[in-house]
Amino acid sequence: MEYYSKHNLPTPKEPHCPVYHCLPNQKAIVTGASSGIGKEVAIMLAKAGADVCVNYSKSEHKASEVAEEINLRTDCNAFTFKADVSKEDEVLSMFNAAQKRFGHIDIVVCNAGIQRDAPLVDMSVAQFDEVIGINLRGQFLCSREAVRIFKKQGIIENTSCSAGKILSIASVHDIIPWAGHVNYAASKGGVAMLIKSIAQEVAQYRIRANIISPGAIRTPINIQTWQNHEAYEELMKLIPYKRIGEPREVGRCAVWLASDQSDYINGATVYIDGGMTLYPGFETGG
Ligand code: BGC
Question: Is the pTM of this model over 0.85?
Answer without folding.
Answer: yes
